[in-house]
Amino acid sequence: MACALKGGRRGRVVELELGELNLLGTVTPALGNLTYLRRLGLSRNRFHGVLPPELEIQQNNFSGVLPPDVGSKLPKLTDFLVSQNNFHGVLPSSLCNASMLQEIQTNDNFLPGTIPQCLGIHLSNMSIVALAANQFEITDDGDWGFMTSLTNCSNLKELEISANKLHGVLPDSIGNLSTGTKSINIANNNITGKITEGKGNLINLRELYMEYNMIIGPIPASLGKLKMLTELHILNNALSGSIPETLGNLTKLATLTLGTNVISGAIPDSLCNCPLEVLDLSYNNLSGPIPKEIFSISSLSSFLHLSHNSLFGTLPSEVGNLKNLGDLDFSNNRISGEIPTSIGDCQSLEYLITSGNILEGTIPLSLSEVPKIGVFLNLTTTLIIGNDGLCGVIPLLKLPLCSNHTSKKLHRKLDMIVSLCCAFAFVTLVFALSLLYQKSQKTKANLQRAVMGEQYMRVCYAELASATGDFSSNNLIGAGSFGTIYKGTMRDKGRGVVVAVKILNLMQRGARQSFIATCETLRCARHRNLVKILTKYLIFVGFQSMDWATKSPPMAMEFCCWRCSREKRPTDREFGEAIGLRKYVQNALPDRVSTVVDQRLLTETKDGEAAGISGNRDMRIAGVSSILDVGICCSEEMPTDRPPIGEALKKLQTIKDKFLKNLCSEGASSSR
């Protein structure tokens, strides 16, 4: 590569952009000679090997340790972008010396240790700190010092430290971050404590992600001051108290997820002021009726989840206003009354789940008024189990017919007549079948006595081998195209019985057909020169080649899943252009398994409702971690790197046996 520079000063390259050029090989250490270099772009190539002192290299496969003196060697560095690689080792504290640094992005690597506490002391120009999906640890309150230092970054726009191993109480200093901060993501950690009132000072905050932690206490009313907020995710924590009315002040809020907590009280009708597209309040202790104002939020389009609460009352007719809603789930509550006919106006509905309530009355006919079947051309799931009072004429739902009060007496008479006729027909049919059965039994017994004389002998392979001298050649009677015949002497009721044993050669073409034809002939023929059939073997024919040394990939099997959890989507923030589900799970192994698994799999349940954080969680996490590890091995990109299916099966069986053994031990200890 030649570079023609104008002027008398040579070698003073300040920017070098080599991104998206499909370059291969290692990166030359000669880049260190560019002493005035401020920006180096190497992203979206196929470089490998150890990283020399240069920077923008995200979405590659670099490994090794980050240069510890990178900040000292490049003091004028502005961007440090190493996301989506395989780096390990600590984050260099020398980055604090690069006073012009504006962005640090190390997402999706394997960086351990603590986050440098000097991160924001001398870096007042810092705008983005993205350290998600690594192995950073916080074990005591002192390790949170970096959060306090970031309060010096007046230009901070984004803070992302999700999917690490951060423990302890979130410091109050998070509320003192720059008022220009737009996004904070601390999800998928083990953070405890309460949500501080100080977060209400972040008046320009647009996104707040705090899900999958162990945060307790009420939702502070000060969150209602975040007028610019569009995303609020606090699901899968241990929040209590009620939903504050002040959340209705968030007039730009599009997503609100508070599911899987212990929130109580009523659903505030002030939420109708928010232009919500997603609302998840499932798996809580909410009570009271569903406010009809909720169904006036016409912007609801993705899903409305209110399941597994204690809501009661009727389903408001305003549900028909949700014309763009794709998923409606209010199962496992105490909703009563009839399903309003206006639900037929929800033309975009794909999932309708009402099971576990006390609904009654007629299913609206609008559920069957679209082309082919169903009100909703896009409707894929309708669950109404547990609503014994429902009735209707829609064949797809298999409900009983609804009774008409004006003809109730006539229906009773008809029911009585039909019942009597059915009973008489049933008794007659049973009597006739019993006669036929007795007659067939007599005929069968006579036939067995005439043809067989006695029951088959029960013979195992060892007895046959002993009777024929281990199929010795001295007992060989003859050999044909499809098998060999041996003479043997067996013991039956204390006497010796001379038998002929035929061994088929199923590898010979036509052997199976010959065997079937011979059996058919012996079944029908009776002759003194034909050998009497004493017994039979079960044979299993159909295995391809019967050569266990043959190695081939197993075929995929179709399966039926009654209902899938949809916590993760391909469009979620965790998945970028270069990270898929396998990489996402691999990054979580072995210490962050709980961040990629539905928390309901790791907690004990009672009567179908979440029981909180209880039971031997570590034992469950260990079992799931082992299973995911087998899955990672079996999904290697190169087929030759994948273990044989038998080896994978043995590993899964070992995991199962160990888990059940530990489970039994736990049960025995608890019973004492």
Provide structural commentary:
The chain is an alpha/beta fold and about 675 residues long. Among the domains are: about 215-400, Alpha-Beta Horseshoe (Leucine-rich repeat, LRR (right-handed beta-alpha superhelix)), CATH 3.80.10; about 460-540 and about 555-565, 2-Layer Sandwich (Phosphorylase Kinase, domain 1), CATH 3.30.200; about 580-600 and about 615-665. It has a 13-stranded parallel beta sheet, with no helix packed on it. A hairpin with a 2-residue loop joins strand 34 and strand 35. Helix 7 packs antiparallel against helix 8 (about 645-670). The longest helix is centred in the middle third of the chain and has 44 residues, at about 410-450. The radius of gyration is 36 Å and the shape is flat. About 25% of the residues are buried. Mean pLDDT is about 80; it is low at about 370-380, about 540-550, about 555-565 and about 605-615.
